């Protein structure tokens, strides 16, 4: 419920559970929801959430998705072994729905339990969810929490740095427990303010602040399922063609590192994956770390075609570093790993740079690889897929960063005479959310129409709705806190 520890640290499971040896044969034909139950049960004790309650939470969370498979696999180029994992079939057309529909129901589940028999609104336990978004987290959090009893949600986003549809999805929600704050600054500014709010004990104690960003570990837990589901989906395809020793590579467009971190947990649990490949845009801190061992800010955040990845410091990367430090520097000691990592994070904050020991970077390269993709390359890939795919498939720019990275790795495999790998590239958002970039890539193609080929009716309707938002004219902790207090006072007492 809290999301972030009071000292600013992130919650993680110190031990990653290992799956039963026969999980492949037993789980191969399970539905997405059944897989989710089995995976979550590895981390959640039945004494905390009984089996039937957990099943109902999962069913409720994924009943809102437009695909019966929840996260279906799409063939992009079978001859190259390239497949797309579509993660945008939830209510807000983005991969964040997979986690946040579940987390929203989880919040409500625990609050209902805690408030059982308490009818006085003043005495009920409530939670004030505060999050920052670079685009899709905000709307997914809002759609996961809208109308939830005893929950208020505040989402900060950088003014002018998200797409118009992303802003419309957040600001047109009418539920009185939803509040959007447009902050004049960058996503990193918004994220820093959220972290500072979590660090203020008095404010936390009074307003029961909770996290919904990927700093909330429950989100990472919910995202593990689609790694297993896509593995089993593609396994059935390749087995029919006689492929043995199937170990796919997952390519993940990465900003705050939460999406690919879920893949790391899945791999460590026992999922047979070869590599997790980080696909970055020109804000390439993660790519530079893997190549040099240096984790550092590089000037200002660059505004790119893939804005949800326009991040200088990736919060969830701290989680990976803890495991790498513990197992390769701290001799397996949890506490020493925490101390070392805390020193690194303080150094990063004060100097803007940390250089990891070679043992850490070597360990990271066992599970991860990375690529940096420019805006120009992103647009070229959107056009290439549209013009070569038999269904004129349209990628959003973030997914195009992943597909570009996949193409590079496939070409590298071919040059080395290697052909055994299959690539699952994660498609993180519907292209309709990024009309400007998609149109820039495709407008010159005869017959292309954004309205006809891309835009769903549900998103068309957003432009006609009235917006509700608060403008914060500078990235100020004090101004954001004041806005939260004022908006909470206006909320009806019975929500």
Any overview of this molecule?
Helix 2 (32-41) crosses helix 3, helix 12 crosses helix 14 (358-367) and helix 15 (375-388) crosses helix 17 (435-442). 46% of the residues lie in helices and 13% in strands. The chain has helices at 23-27, 32-41, 51-62, 96-114, 136-145, 164-171, 187-198, 201-207, 217-239, 258-269, 285-292, 317-328, 334-351, 358-367, 375-388, 397-415, 435-442, 450-453, 457-460, 477-490; strands at 73-77, 82-86, 127-132, 151-158, 178-183, 209-211, 249-253, 276-280, 294-296, 353-355, 368-372, 423-427, 470-472. The model has no long low-confidence stretch (mean pLDDT 93). It has 495 residues and is an alpha/beta fold. Strand 1 (73-77) and strand 2 form a beta hairpin. The strands form three sheets. It has a six-stranded mixed sheet with strand order 1-2-12-7-8-11, with helices on both faces. The chain folds into two domains: 24-93 and 219-375, 3-Layer(aba) Sandwich (Rossmann fold), CATH 3.40.50.1100; 105-216 and 463-490, Rossmann fold.
